[in-house]
Design brief:
Length: 424
């Protein structure tokens, strides 16, 4: 038996047009004799029927303070609706299918509502359905935890995490329940773009839709380290936790467009070597909460970083000229990040200046940065100075250089860095 895990984002399963194209991708595999396991996200964006934000807003109109356990129960509904709809679309086309929630598919998580981590997968039900010739549809973004099997969600982009975890688990199985040899094809991640680009296309147009500089280009391949770094810094490639798991287990991944036959971007052990590019691509992280702490404690930055990680917040410590401890934290739709920060500071008897709006992080990323960030820093500083972009701190990563800027300068600054480095 040959299996392929395919992950489809919310815009890929909007009815009727997008869902039909996605169905074609799944049927193509089945017709080739490859058994698909399709991981499905909730349908559509906010404002469209059954989107997760609209389901949450509906309940919050009744009572605004939803308990975390019940919020996860509610947020799981979008994926369950989508997975049942897609399974029945394929049934209407003559295919035998099975729709599974995350828990039914065997995903076991820890008890951390909103940002649960997968701790085990029991794939028995998936394997049984595949041996019966069915196409299996799995609701992404969710699992179950504890003795009561409470439904948990896996954080923003959690369907990526589901897909990678399933690819890892199935890839470790050598034979099916019928003792047939089992192989797993590269994981397929389907998006609206042709693969991983040198930047997010939405960041290269102004508010009126006019282009800002040269458009991003398709990257044929990435290394695993580039994948992880780009995901951490906001690139719409793969959820960060999913990218870490893909790197750890060397999962071959192909990122491609669900509407075209473009080959996409490949990340695999075969591509895990430097390409020779100085910079591979750019990334931007928006909607940041920034806080400053004045302290003479040299260990404070590390301690705060550990506290933020324990709260499962995507955070970045920013170097400043005045020596302040400054962090940029990604704000999230369904978590009160400023309140979480207040709690961390209260526990440590600290006072912090928190500014929750109007901040962004822009980055250049690539294997070529490794060992040469100093020279890149000088060149990037000159580019931003010429563009009259004010920066409020920097971060030097092993494969990246990032700047904290005002949201109003983000797109203009990113376009200049992209043109100077990613397109060079």
């Amino acid at each position: 038996m040959r299996i392929v895990v395919q992950k489809f984002g919310g815009t890929c399963v909007e009815f009727p047009h997008s869902a039909e194209l996605t169905a074609e991708r799944i049927m193509e595999m089945k017709d080739q004799g490859i058994s698909p396991v399709a991981v499905i996200s909730a349908m559509g964006r906010e404002g469209q029927p059954y989107s997760t934000p609209d389901l949450v807003n509906f309940v919050r109109e009744i009572y605004p303070r939803i308990e975390p356990r019940e919020l996860d129960l509610l947020m799981s509904c979008g994926e369950i609706i989508a997975v049942v709809a897609m399974a029945n679309l394929l049934k209407a086309k003559g295919y035998d299918t099975m729709a599974l929630s995350g828990g039914q598919a065997g995903l076991i998580t820890d008890v951390y509502y909103g940002h649960a981590r997968i701790i085990d997968i029991e794939p028995r039900r998936i394997l049984q359905a595949l041996t019966e010739g069915r196409i299996v549809f799995v609701a992404g973004f969710q699992g179950v935890a504890g003795e009561e099997h409470a439904i948990t969600t896996l954080g923003e982009g959690g369907s990526d995490y589901t897909a990678v975890a399933l690819a890892v688990t199935l890839g470790q199985i050598e034979v099916t329940p019928l003792r047939e040899p089992l192989t797993v094809e590269p994981l397929e991640i389907y998006k609206e773009v042709d693969g991983v680009l040198t930047g997010n296309p939405k960041s290269f147009v102004d508010d009126d839709g006019k282009p800002l500089g040269e458009p991003p280009r398709l990257l044929p391949s990435l290394t695993y380290d580039e994948l992880v770094e780009m995901a951490k810094l906001g690139a719409q490639v793969l959820q960060h936790r999913a990218s870490l798991m893909a790197r750890q287990y060397r999962v071959p991944v192909v990122v491609k467009n669900f509407t075209t036959n473009v080959v996409g971007t490949r990340i695999s052990p075969e591509t895990d070597r430097p390409s020779g590019r100085r910079v591979t691509g750019t990334a931007d992280l928006t909607n940041l909460v920034v806080f400053d702490v004045v302290s003479d404690n040299p260990r404070l930055g590390r301690q705060l970083g550990e506290s933020l990680a324990m709260n499962r917040l995507n955070s970045h410590e920013v170097s400043t000229e005045d020596g302040r401890v400054r962090f940029a934290v990604k704000a999230e739709k369904y978590r009160d990040v400023p309140a979480m920060l207040d709690h961390i500071f209260y526990d440590r008897d600290l006072k912090a200046e928190i500014t929750p709006d109007d901040w962004a992080l822009i980055s250049v990323v690539g294997e070529g940065v490794r060992g040469g960030v100093g020279a890149l820093h000088d060149d990037a500083d000159a580019v931003l100075k010429a563009a009259k972009v004010e920066t409020f701190g920097e971060i030097e990563g092993p494969l990246s250089l990032s700047y904290l800027v005002r949201e109003g300068d983000r797109k203009r600054a990113l376009a200049r860095l992209h043109e100077e480095f990613a397109l060079a």
